[in-house]
Amino acid sequence: MPSAGGGTRDGLANGRDGVDFGEYARHDAVALADLVRRRQVTPAELLALARARAEAVGPHLGCVSIDDGDFAEAHLARGVRDGPFAGVPLLLKDLYAFLAGTRISNGSRLVRDWTAPSDATLVVRLLAAGFVPFAKTTSPEFGLNVVTEPVLHGACRNPWDPAFSPGGSSGGAAAAVAAGVVPVAHASDGGGSIRIPASHCGLVGLKPSRARTPVGPAVGEVWSGLAVGFVLTRTVRDAAAVLDVLAGPEPGDLYASPEPGGRFADALDRDPGRLRIGLLRRPPHPAVRVHPEVAAVVEAAADFLDGLGHAVEETDVPLDGARFAEAFLAVVAVNVARDVAWWSRTTGRPADGEHLETATLALVERGRALSAVAFLEALRTVQGAARALGRVFARFDLLLSPVCALPPPRVGEIDQNGPDPEAFLARNLPYVTFTHVYNAAGCPALALPFGRTGAGLPVGIMLGAPLGAETRLLALAAVLERARPWPRLAPFAPPPR
């Protein structure tokens, strides 16, 4: 199997026997699919390498929660779809990623070992593109945490330093991609859950526009339109190419995202032109302060973009950050209360402290206590973020900000099952204060690697765009990737068994 640095097909195919995984891990998903098309490697060989890497790093990083190896083997036996990613191994997130006949837990003892009766539309499209799912990645309970440490599966760790968290809620996906298990992993984002782990693990994390990717067929929206599904990747090229296969409406959609006007992959070769970029230095929430190491990375990015010829100017989003955060939490609480009630009926297990973590249960109780009028008032406040961002985007093409106000936390710092749910929520706030406004507005936002902490952990920057303007984000991201290439993999070597 040739690569940019040489190598042979045998060197890749024998990875399960202990041969170096470096060649496999150096390729992104687009490159692996090309090798399959040219018959320089087989889907079975790629699957063997991915599974071997998962077996090697999984016990140390806690990134894989459910093994779907039987499905993958049967899928290969039937023959993978002849799509643009034919034969490329994939991990699904253990959160509503329904793959018929396989188990899912949503990171919760309430749901554990439930078998999906049918496929989610997003999964249907991933399969049609030729991806081969073989396991599910660890998620916090119901995706409600900025770290990934569910009671059911245990803590997920950052491959850059296992003492730290990879973030959440797509923490297992991020850890697996950064550790070289797969080049692409399914992820989802209801308040920052793609972008936060991308920042912590040195990955590309695109949250697409609302309704850009499907959420059906079982529901018309997730978290009242706040959440969207996509993937985490190591390259901008993979993010664009996967968006091309996932984007588009499905029958009965409640929303429509603006048409992109062409392939997203074509944006990578497009000159973004001289952009007006608004710099957000101050967090929307008045109680949050940006850590100096994070601020330094964002300032460096602003200077770099200015040096490329873009017009960078400081601005703010006209938003009452404290009121917005409280309303956002109320909308999430009502949705979680409804979801937990459904799962309780479906599994026959009570929604109590034996089956739910303490912060989850507190959020359920908060949602149950909210009146319909109070919920609609909160929803209206959340939706007001679209107007606020719209006024800013009338002046700027893109916005630049931190992803998170703080660097990655240590494992154990943010406990969803701790004794104080309010303290848990307060610890989450610095990690979502910049991200969740884009979920509220439905606008796309992209996390990119750009710096490191003094301890060597990745710190990303976030670029936000108006609704439907993913091509603008991808065009600039491709420029940054070429001008400031980042490490493709974390330097994680699993200890010998």
Q: Features of this protein?
A:
alpha+beta, eight-stranded mixed β-sheet, 497 residues, globular
What would your notes on this structure say?
This protein has 497 residues and is α+β, with helices and mostly antiparallel strands. It has one domain: Amidase signature (AS) enzymes, CATH 3.90.1300. Helix content is 38%, strand content 13%. The chain has 16 helices and 13 strands. The protein has helices spanning 9-13, 22-26, 29-37, 43-61, 69-78, 121-128, 171-178, 195-201, 236-246, 292-307, 321-347, 358-369, 372-393, 421-432, 436-441, 470-483; strands at 64-67, 89-93, 103-104, 114-115, 132-137, 184-189, 204-207, 228-233, 276-279, 311-314, 398-402, 445-452, 458-464. The protein has an eight-stranded mixed sheet with strand order 6-8-7-12-13-11-9-10, with helices on both faces. Strand 9 (276-279), helix 10 and strand 10 (311-314) form a beta-alpha-beta unit. The longest helix has 27 residues, at 321-347. It is globular. The model is unreliable at 1-11 and 13-20 (pLDDT under 50).
Order of helices and strands, N to C?
HHHHEHEEEHEHEHEEHEHEHHHEHHEEH
Which percent bin holds the helix content? 25-40%
CATH names the topology as: Amidase signature (AS) enzymes
- CATH class placement: Alpha Beta
Count of all domains: 1
Structural class: alpha+beta
Q: What does the radius of gyration come to?
A: 21 Å
Unreliable sequence segments: 1-11, 13-20
Number of helices: 16
Cα distance, first to last residue? 29 Å
Oligomer: single chain
Instruction: Tell me the name of the CATH homologous superfamily.
Output: Amidase signature (AS) domain
State the CATH architecture: Alpha-Beta Complex
Strand order of the largest sheet: 6-8-7-12-13-11-9-10
Shape: globular
Average pLDDT, rounded to a whole number, is 95
- Total DSSP E strands: 13
Strand coverage percent: 5-15%
